[in-house]
Amino acid sequence: MRTLPPHLPPRKRSRRLLLATATATALGVGAALVLPQSAGAAETAPVGFGAGTTGGGSASAVTVSTLAAFKTAVTGNTAKVVKVNGLISLSGQVDVGSNTTVLGVGSSSGFTGGGLRLKKVTNVVIRNLNISKPVAPADGVTVQASTKVWVDHNSFSADRNHDKDYYDGLLDINHGSDYVTVSWNTFKDHFKGSLVGHSDNNASEDTGHLRVTYHHNSFDNVYSRIPSLRFGTGHFYDNYVVGAETAVHSRMGAQMLVENNVFRSTVVAVTTNRDSDVDGYANLRGNDLGGAATEVSRVGTFTSPPYSYTAEPASSVVAAVTSGAGAGKL
Question: What would the mean pLDDT of 96-112 be, rounded to a whole number?
Fold first, then answer.
């Protein structure tokens, strides 16, 4: 059974444990029961598949305000914390080395016009940044052949005034990347939100990898890919989705657990059977679909993530995400 919240006094913990045990027995779910708890919006460490990611850790921070200084600061694999002060214009992407924390200063620092690339690196934290209008072929953030990544409290955005291919993805994870947590971000005004696994033909590299957790994110006026997952294993919980055509998309045998999310003004909340030769798998529980359809052709086996977490109920998700997600909320 999952660990009870440590802040409860012993008597309440004991009483809650008895209640949980009784409820689990009645529901027939046993150890899979997750007790609701109000989540803290400013976690000090990632929850989910990206747990253990520390980035630059306690390394002395360097503050930069120009593109040249930023490129120099994030190069290499030694432990480093790079603070971005102000909005920096990009053309294309900047490569970020291993063991790095990139942290925006205040609520309006970050990048526009391009993005960041994590290629063949490990242990990277991307936090508190505004990342906007990544002109194709640049994504806002690309995680490529990389492991241990935490993308947290960022504000991603573009616009819907251009052709759907004018901007690239806001956050794409591909080429066998693994152990990634995407938490407390806002994604706004975009066609192609977050693609995990770039191709139906990449099974040899992606199978057994692409383990990604999305929790407490806001997706507002994002048309699709919330996320789109091929081959991997995804846990999508406590997210708030408004205005999507097709939100969660599991394909090419991917396993998705979709838990305690809220969907509004969305046509299809979850699908497993579009656009690829092989369907995906999905398990749904505790969601507020808000009238959205679901297209689940295959129910999956992924029902119990291999990490500790607490999924708050869908009834509290809108308030939590609205108040806590995005840059400037740390």
Answer: 98
From the candidates 127, 211, 225, 251, which is the catalytic residue?
225
Tell me how far apart the terminal alpha carbons of the chain are, to the nearest angstrom: 31
Class of CATH domain 55-324 = mainly beta
Helix boundaries (H) for the chain: 10-27, 67-73, 203-206, 317-324
Helix (H) or strand (E) holding 250: strand 246-251
Give the SS3 label for residue 137: coil
Does residue 160 carry a catalytic annotation?
no
What's the pLDDT score for residue 42?
Answer: 72
Domain residues of the chain, as ranges?
55-324
Among 39, 54, 307, 304, smallest CA distance to 183 is for: 39
Cα gap 289→262, rounded to integer Å: 6
Distance, CA of 277 to CA of 86 (rounded, Å): 45
Write out the two tokens for 308: 């500790």
Residues 248 and 258 sit within 8 Å (Cβ to Cβ): yes
Identity of residue 270: V
Q: How is residue 69 written in tokens?
A: 């200084």
Separation CA 93–CA 123 (nearest Å): 19
Rounded average pLDDT over 199-218: 98
pLDDT in tens, 235-291: 999 999 999 999 999 999 999 999 999 999 999 999 999 999 999 999 999 999 999
The pLDDT, as a whole number, for residue 77 is: 98
What gap in Å lies between CA 188 and CA 239, rounded to an integer?
A: 13
Q: What is the pLDDT of residues 153-202, one digit of tens each?
A: 999 999 999 999 999 999 999 999 999 999 999 999 999 999 999 999 99
CA distance 144 to 206: 11
